[in-house]
Amino acid sequence: MKAARLMQYFVLFYFTVVYILILAIKVTGVVEFSFDNTLLLLIVMFAMISSDRKMNFLAALTSGVITILTFGVVPRVNLRLIPIFYLSTLLLLLLSYLTEKRGPLLRWSAFLAGGLIFWATRSMLGLVASQRLIFAASGYVVLASIIFWLLYANEKHQEMTARNKHDAFFDEMTATKNYRAFVKELDQGVQSYHAHGQTLGLIMVDIDHFKNVNDTYGHLMGNEILKEVTATLKKQAQTLTPTENVYRLGGEEFALLVREQDCQEVSQFAELCHEMVGNLHASQPNQVHVTISLGYSKLREQETSMHFFQRVDKLLYQAKKQGRDIAVGSCDVSVKN
């Protein structure tokens, strides 16, 4: 969150510096071309990149102050340009904010409207010749369109990349991390233990007789049970520490990684998960009574992630073999493999 906010401020700073440079070129008159369109297009780019309301407000305030101060100290500049330009800036940012969640055509039209209103107002006040008006307004429409659609395409590409990255590591139905994410983060946890001594516990969970539930009540009921069990495990994990994660390994099997907890705490947490899932429908008539089997342990010295996973999986198998609906764990963390 802090990184995202810092990035927003960096964009605002970059926008301010570029704005000042372009404005300085405009008022010094070292070139014939008016930089009004360039300044407006810079605001379009900022509005596309930063959709944060606070950042837009700061950008409007910053550009307004800079414009007023600059135009005010340059005698050759017509002072009537100040309110026209500033109101056009505010209009651009306001239209950008209002159309942010709308379709691309509406957002594009909003950007075009802001610039066209600027040139139309200048024309009505006699601050631009008719030939210059057609050239400037047409140039704004073309350049604003190019900038908008390029940035919009980049925006969609980033969203698709983020969505694909999310989908690669999350289970769609239960909204938990999947087996791929589990393997990756288990390896990271084991490396952190060996490098820095950060303790790591693993709990594996299996819903008892889940095939019978699907066969008897149908897969829709089975899916609802998967979601309920997942929600219960996630809720319990959040009470331990905000960094705990629940993973769906496949079918009706789940795993939880528990960091910075001793083995007794891992054991108590596993028993709590077992109890809470068992109470889901226990008091409700005509409801499927759901139970789970669990295996749990702490990472041992010199143990690899694969050996750790296999050992806890055997503990889960023992829980099933002993009649299910129980938690079986091992706390012999001092034993070396």
From TrEMBL:
<keyword id="KW-0812">Transmembrane</keyword>
<dbReference type="InterPro" id="IPR000160">
    <property type="entry name" value="GGDEF_dom"/>
</dbReference>
<dbReference type="InterPro" id="IPR043128">
    <property type="entry name" value="Rev_trsase/Diguanyl_cyclase"/>
</dbReference>
<dbReference type="Pfam" id="PF00990">
    <property type="entry name" value="GGDEF"/>
</dbReference>
<feature type="transmembrane region" description="Helical">
    <location>
        <begin position="105"/>
        <end position="121"/>
    </location>
</feature>
<feature type="transmembrane region" description="Helical">
    <location>
        <begin position="57"/>
        <end position="75"/>
    </location>
</feature>
<feature type="transmembrane region" description="Helical">
    <location>
        <begin position="7"/>
        <end position="27"/>
    </location>
</feature>
<keyword id="KW-1133">Transmembrane helix</keyword>
<feature type="transmembrane region" description="Helical">
    <location>
        <begin position="81"/>
        <end position="98"/>
    </location>
</feature>
<dbReference type="InterPro" id="IPR050469">
    <property type="entry name" value="Diguanylate_Cyclase"/>
</dbReference>
<keyword id="KW-0472">Membrane</keyword>
<dbReference type="InterPro" id="IPR029787">
    <property type="entry name" value="Nucleotide_cyclase"/>
</dbReference>
<feature type="transmembrane region" description="Helical">
    <location>
        <begin position="133"/>
        <end position="153"/>
    </location>
</feature>
<feature type="domain" description="GGDEF">
    <location>
        <begin position="198"/>
        <end position="332"/>
    </location>
</feature>
<protein>
    <recommendedName>
        <fullName>GGDEF domain-containing protein</fullName>
    </recommendedName>
</protein>
